[in-house]
Specification:
Layout lengths: L5 E4 L6 H10 L2 E4 L1 H19 L24 H12 L3 E4 L2 H15 L8 H12 L3 E2 L2 E3 L8 H11 L4 E3 L5 E3 H7 L11 H6 L3 H31 L9 H5 L4 H13 L4 H4 L13 H4 L1 H23 L7 E3 L4 E3 L7 H29 L22 H17 L21 H32 L7 H12 L12 H12 L2 H10 L4
Parallel strand pairs: 1-2
Antiparallel strand pairs: 3-5, 4-6, 6-7, 8-9
Helix pairs in contact: 1-4, 3-6, 4-5, 4-9, 9-11, 9-14, 9-15, 9-17, 11-14, 14-15, 15-16, 15-17, 16-17, 17-18, 17-19, 18-20
GO molecular function: histidine ammonia-lyase activity
Catalytic activity: L-histidine = trans-urocanate + NH4(+)
Organism: Nocardioides piscis
Length: 517
């Protein structure tokens, strides 16, 4: 008996939690009984139309610009095979396993709505691939984000036919037919409309959106930790984060971020040391003082994206769709990825700007004219040692890349299919670059945390707040050493990145102050 979590599809929209469990944690998947009945009802409609003399798009016609050709009954099984084989035209590196599992789950979710006309055995085989950890090989390039993520989904449909390449649960590359046999599964012979139902959805871009939202929610709280450490380490004031100041500009994200900063710096001897009236600092630089405004705007944008993702998770994206209660099949434009593509691009802007302000806070530590008494570049013996000079270079290189990635993909459109598909969303491209942006943000924040930790050590004997001290201790326990002579920095940077991406930095702070908002 497997100890893995199991989720049931077809009892309502897939939740963020369930998607992450399947995509990242390998949860098993089954289909609910009510969903199987809905699948059967829709299938009856498709079979009636398939038997009728009147052409029905996707059932007895060609596709896209070839939709005007009526396909005779004996050729319809070949029609579905040809559709999947021809559309499995991806190129480039393999897409990550978690992305492929997410798009498979979301396609299955649409199949279980009873609006696609799939057969139950085809849907059950897709669930079986997920449960057995069989992941079709999907390539980087091929989707225009309109008519769905056609090429990526076609590679998955190909595996259901026992064709193409997959990776098994251990990650070994093998022919799909061999993987199915090893798992005790049998390939399907696609029937009328099934090929189209399997490939016509926004599932890849939506899966990447949900995972990016989950990652950004964690990273933005971690960015608050980094900002608190920087304000503290640069002898900044926490008074600008007071709740009464946030209340007069009532953006919800700003208030949450500011509250985090106040909590994180509570009981800091470093902050207390310059609260006296003889401090000649009137106000801090924008990168310190405005952290809640930037981080808060980022939070609000992420939550807007979550609203869009929630709507999409509740959708049945296919063309044509089966309206089983009315006994008909209708063409529509719901496959267009614009709603998802826009917020994917918006989040890339968020990642770039939060990384940008993080890099500016870091740079202030390294400049002796702005660091308020710290060694140049936080070096042990400046001149002999370069300290963290080049760590900031690395940050700057990443931030520059993130600014390029913030250019929207969704404003581009290259017509396809002989001008039948003359406006496309490029949402898959938006999602692919957002994944790079989220990774880059984690790297930039990690370097700020690492830099701020060294600065806090150098403020001794004054002690930081209990929360930021817990973060410093976590870094030191992971082998990221404090001040001292120059050493090989790259392993320490990568260790810091791992601590940020795993949530360990967040957990360290929250072990003191409780859950951050």
């Amino acid at each position: 008996m497997s100890n893995r979590r199991s989720i049931t599809v077809g009892t309502g929209p897939v939740s963020f939690v369930d998607l992450l469990a399947v995509a990242r944690d390998g949860a098993e998947v089954q289909i609910g009984d009510d969903a199987l009945k809905a699948i059967d009802r829709a299938r009856e409609v498709v079979e009636e139309l398939a038997a009728a003399p009147t052409p029905a798009y996707g059932i007895s016609t060609g596709f896209g610009a070839l939709a005007t050709r009526h396909i005779p009954t004996p050729m319809r099984a070949q029609l579905q095979k040809s559709l999947v084989r021809s559309h499995a035209a991806g190129s480039g590196p393999e897409v990550e396993r978690e992305v492929v599992r997410a798009l498979m789950l979301l396609r299955l979710s649409t199949l279980t709505t009873g609006h696609t006309g799939i057969r139950r055995e085809t849907a059950q085989l897709l669930a079986g691939l997920l449960t057995h950890g069989i992941t079709p090989v999907v390539r980087e390039y091929g989707s225009l984000g309109c008519s769905g993520d056609l090429a990526p989904l076609a590679h998955c449909a190909l595996a259901l036919m026992g064709e193409g390449e997959v990776r098994d649960a251990s990650g070994d590359l093998m022919p799909a037919a061999d993987a199915l046999v090893a798992a005790g599964l049998s390939p399907v012979e696609l029937a009328a409309k099934e090929g189209l139902a399997l490939i016509n959805g926004t599932d890849g871009m939506l899966g990447m959106l949900v995972m990016a939202i989950a990652d950004l929610r964690m990273l933005l709280r971690t960015a608050d930790i980094a900002a608190a450490m920087s304000v503290e380490g640069q002898l900044g004031t926490d008074r600008v984060f007071a709740p009464e100041l946030q209340a007069i500009r009532p953006h919800p994200g700003q208030a949450l971020s500011a509250a985090n900063l106040v909590a994180l710096m509570a009981d800091s001897a470093i902050v207390a040391s310059h609260r006296t009236g003889d401090c000649n600092r009137v106000q801090d630089a924008y990168s310190l003082r405005c952290s809640p405004q930037v981080h808060g705007a980022a939070r609000d944008t992420v939550e807007y994206a979550a609203v869009v993702a929630g709507r999409e998770l509740s959708s049945a994206v296919d063309n044509p769709v089966v309206l089983a209660d009315e006994g008909r099949v209708e063409s529509n434009g719901n496959f267009h990825g614009a709603p998802v593509a826009y917020v994917l691009d918006f989040l890339a802007i968020v990642a770039a700007d939060v990384a940008s302000i993080s890099e500016r806070r870091t740079d202030r530590f390294l400049d002796k004219t702005r660091s308020h008494g710290l060694h140049p570049f936080l070096a042990d013996d400046p001149g002999v040692d370069s300290g963290l000079m080049i760590a900031q270079y690395t940050q700057a290189a990443v931030v520059s890349e993130l600014k390029r990635l913030a250019n929207p993909a969704s404003v581009d459109s290259i017509p396809s299919s002989a001008m039948q598909e003359d406006h496309v969303s490029m949402g898959w491209s938006s999602a692919r670059k957002l994944r790079r942006s989220v990774d880059g943000l984690a790297r930039v924040v990690a370097i700020e945390v690492m830099t701020a930790a060294r600065a806090l050590d150098m403020r001794g004997p004054l002690t930081p707040s209990p929360a930021t001290a817990a973060v410093v201790a976590t870094l030191r326990e992971a082998g990221i050493a404090g001040p001292g002579p120059d050493r090989h920095l790259s392993p320490e940077i990568e260790a810091a990145v791992s601590l940020v991406q795993s949530g360990a930095v967040l957990a360290a702070a929250e072990s003191v102050v409780g859950a951050l908002a």
